[in-house]
């Protein structure tokens, strides 16, 4: 086996200790792999918008057909919502089984006018693939299909592979829990492998060791029974938008703490040792501020930016509206105001309890003259993935061989609610081996995925399977 001509950081990685890797096949085909990804990215599989229902399905079919063409058994499992792709390759009782999870649905591309190129007409430019879903999660999920192809080129599969690729991740995975409960046997595995998170940097590879949970609510504040002339009534009637703003303002105090009584109950205190390790992670606050073009960061007193976004809960207004927002001025005292509020949760918190807490406590913040209604949206539980299991060590080894550097274990601030269900329903741990970067602009205009990230993912995943199989042999 030869070293990668075009990836100097992995020089020496394919030593005797390394896993078998079909270097020549990889070099000869990786450009085709990228072109195939572009095909998938052209399908606008926006799960949130019913107008794209048929396209979401088409993306699922594309993934299913791709698996079949690679030699796996695969099917579309229908749900009340978008279908789930289930696939399987290898069924050797002497080999461990890896369940690959990912999603083929994407976030809406709005606001369209802020894209430099069309979200569903992918372009490869400056070393990046630009398209909605390039990183989250089509680009990363697709790596697993190609890892399967590469593994087959290097000999018999070292592991049994199962694939569960869903089409509703971006809208809360409402039907995946039922699918898992109905297919416990079929989904039985020794570990779940997911590439749907980010690394710290290409020079500072990391493996995600935790995810935050989520409680998402919508609030409606109603004042007068109809919109009023703000000259005739202004000054005498409570304005629901202003009431809502003051209520929201009370949710976080001057120290950056969330004020809902009981919100922090049970929150796991992160051991000093872990906090020390996080403080040593190469995180550049100046680069962070420069990237976001902000002059200061903000958040809970006593915690670093990395901590605030990972091991501590947070509360954000995701959208707020009401009254007149069109061109020019309309003088109106509106009847209603709305906001969408999300709370990111950490181990020790439970999304159902937090949602109920919010529904009970938020209306108490209302001044007189308005009524408040809170409607729960989706939620999900936080997850911690261990670093002291063979699968984690296999992942760390694979990353080290591909990147030429040992990965840093780091929790992430995002949410993949299904990960806690894998543990709960299947009793299986999840390895979050993501190849994205925070700068990929996921959920934003101009989402992108580095071509180098794509290649590193291709090099790392087959190695993971080999090392995991080896570890399972004992
Ligand atoms: N892939 C993301 C989650 C993610 C991104 C985790 C980056 C870690 C780092 C996933 O597709 C996502 O967007 N999840 C949603 C939650 C879901 C219930 C809509 C999120 O985190 O907002
Ligand atoms: Mn995702
Ligand atoms: Mn997402």
Query: Into which percentage range does the β-strand content fall?
Result: 15-25%
The CATH class of the largest domain turns out to be Alpha Beta
Rg result: 24 Å
Task: Indicate the mean pLDDT.
Answer: 94
Low-confidence stretches: 1-16
Q: Can you tell me the overall shape? A: globular
Task: Determine the oligomeric state from the structure.
Answer: single chain
Most strands sheet: 6 strands, mixed
Within the CATH hierarchy, at the fold level, what is the topology of the largest domain?
A: Aminopeptidase
**Could you tell me which ligands this complex binds, including any ions or cofactors?**
ligand BES, manganese (II) ion
Number of domains: 2
Helix content class: 25-40%
CATH architecture term of the largest domain:
3-Layer(aba) Sandwich
Number of helices: 13
Question: What are the salient characteristics of this protein?
Answer:
single chain; 474 residues; alpha/beta; Aminopeptidase; Alpha-Beta Plaits; 2 domains; 6-stranded mixed beta sheet; 4-stranded antiparallel beta sheet; globular; disordered N terminus; binds ligand BES; binds manganese (II) ion
